[in-house]
Design a protein that fits this description.
Elements lengths: L1 H10 L7 E9 L5 E8 L5 H9 L4 E4 L7 E9 L12 H11 L4 E4 L5 E12 H14 L6 E3 L15 E2 L22 H11 L3 H6 L15 H9 L1 E2 L3 H16 L4 H11 E2 L4 H12 L20 H4 L18 E7 L5 E7 L2 E5 L1 H5 L1 H12 L8 H13 L2 E4 L6 H14 L15 E4 L4 E4 L1 H10 L6 H10 L3 E7 L2 E9 L2 H4 L5
Parallel strand pairs: 9-10, 11-14
Antiparallel strand pairs: 1-2, 1-3, 3-8, 4-6, 4-7, 5-6, 11-12, 12-13, 15-16, 16-18, 17-18
Length: 507
């Protein structure tokens, strides 16, 4: 198992200081597998991965975004319950699309009976580059509004740990969360390791990987969604909305004299074509001078092929002229602390910033936050529009609860155990001169020097006032004692041996 754990962590190499756990998995009446998610602010230990692979307890979630804003993997999360862009293909159908476009993606069944499409890198790659490419591929596959992991290109301070994704191969011997290869064959865990090696992509290859040639180049100045629809066409059921969005594009490009071009688009791209009276109605509404019209980014059919990052670079894509729509608020995340306090993080235009509940719910305070974070002015929305903005953000909000173990005292307790067990303790008091601690078997106590403990904590980024550490030690039963060792008086701390140590074969 140790070899499997090592390979698994090499593949899913994520954030160094925290991970996620999903526990209490239950299948709901809708067929979605649900449970409670916790963000654990500690490095992943091998036993956590081993428990995941063996199916013992919680399912493991890994945060792709690493400390230096780089990634070794990313994922497209396709879910049947996505309100904007639900999964409508089987995993085999998606693999067929991946094969057709020759994309460096691996399809895996997910916890929620959806599909995760993973991209694995051979080296650390900029999160910004990876997100841009994976978003492009999601759009190409018709799932442009699906969630992309990592969700963040950077962190907004220490409290912002990043969003984690449930990784595959839980209970690997009997898993339903497996990957398939390009021949649609389900892969065992060992086969998955080998397949990842074959499919991983290097930085240079990723930078040069292009899919624009798949689309109609006559619309390369249009939003990516319209360029895709210009290639694929628009079928019955989305014709009016589809042509409406082309009307917005045509007005931006040709001015008010765009009717002839729209008629041409109706005849070539709309199947079957709309009646002339319907086209004229769209033209009249878009021509109105008293109101600015924008693309309906969150509606069919363009939502399927949405790629906001690229759209901002297009001449007639979403831009500053779109008012508050240009801010493109994304990835609202809520961290619920062990004491019930909520902290919010939001992203816009590639910048991630922290919000209090008041700043999130009050548009006046939100405007101030936007000015500080982005240096731009948020145009005040009407109350109803503001409510709709918040409703949309909250509908997609990721909520993570920090368990009691995430409190400073809980973290200290975990670090203390690691300090005592990182190296084998001696069984003589003289051993304290060259080791972290020594174990008094008769008293069942571990003895250690406080200077060594604080050095250990500092090296692991745990920086809290010494007074707090002394207080926590005493609450845990720690006591200070003067000892004479080799003729020298040394002050040591003692504490009951951790249960992990007592369970070991060392005593």
């Amino acid at each position: 198992m140790k070899d499997k754990v090592k390979k698994f962590l090499k593949i899913f190499d994520g954030y160094e200081l925290a991970y996620g756990q999903h526990r209490g998995l239950i299948e709901s009446s809708t067929g979605k597998v649900e449970g409670k998610g916790d963000t654990i602010p500690l490095p992943i230990e091998d036993n956590i991965v081993e428990n995941h692979l063996s199916g013992d307890g919680s399912s493991l979630g890994i945060i792709p975004l690493k400390l230096q804003d780089t990634v070794r993997f990313a994922a497209i999360d396709l879910d049947h319950k996505n309100p904007q862009n639900p999964l409508t293909h089987t995993i085999e159908e998606l693999q067929k699309k991946i094969n057709d476009f020759q994309l460096p993606l691996i399809a895996c069944q997910s916890k929620s009976k959806g599909v995760h499409l993973y991209c694995f890198a051979k080296e650390d790659i900029s999160a910004k580059l990876m997100i841009a490419k994976v978003s492009e591929w999601a759009s190409l596959l018709g799932y442009g509004s699906s969630e992309i992991f990592p969700k963040q290109t950077s962190r907004a301070g220490k409290g912002d740990k990043g969003s984690w994704i449930n990784v595959p191969y839980y209970d690997y011997k009997d898993t339903v969360r497996y990957a398939i290869d390009h021949e649609f064959k389900p892969l065992s865990l060992d086969e998955f390791f080998k397949y990842v090696e074959v499919c991983s992509i290097g930085k240079e290859h990723l930078q040069d990987f292009k899919v624009e040639d798949q689309y109609d180049q006559d619309y390369k100045d249009a939003p990516p969604c319209l360029q895709a629809l210009a290639t694929l066409g628009i079928d019955d059921g989305s014709r009016n909305n589809g042509l409406y969005n082309f009307a917005i594009y045509c007005k931006k490009k040709y001015g008010d004299n765009f009717e002839e071009k729209l008629m041409e688009i109706n005849g070539t791209l709309i199947r079957p074509s709309l009646k002339a009276s319907e086209v004229e109605s769209i033209v009249r509404s878009v021509k109105k001078s008293d109101k600015e019209y924008f693309y309906k980014c969150n509606e069919y059919p363009i939502v399927q092929y949405c790629n906001k990052t690229e759209c901002k670079n297009r001449k007639f894509g979403i831009c500053q002229g779109m008012g508050t729509s240009a801010f493109d608020l994304q990835n609202l995340t809520k961290y619920l602390s062990y004491d019930g306090t909520a902290t919010w993080y939001l992203e816009s235009q590639g910048v991630r910033f922290k919000l209090t509940t008041d700043e999130l719910t009050s548009q006046a305070l939100f405007r101030k936050k936007i000015i500080v974070a982005l240096g731009q002015l948020w145009i005040t929305q009407k109350a109803k529009d503001w409510d709709n903005t918040l409703t949309g953000l909250l509908a997609k909000c990721e909520v993570y609860s920090n368990p009691i173990d995430a409190s400073p005292q809980g973290q200290f307790s975990a670090y203390l155990d690691s300090f005592l067990l990182d190296s084998p303790p001696g069984d003589q008091k003289e051993d304290i001169l060259r080791r972290h601690c020594f174990y008094d078997k008769k008293e069942n106590l571990m003895y250690f020097r406080s200077t060594k403990l604080f050095e250990y904590l500092k090296n692991r980024g745990f920086r809290h006032p010494e007074d707090s550490v002394w207080s926590w030690l005493r609450e845990m039963g720690g006591k200070s004692k003067q000892m004479t060792i080799k003729g020298k008086s040394i002050r040591l701390w003692s504490i009951a041996a951790p249960d992990k140590f007592l369970d070991d074969d060392t005593i």
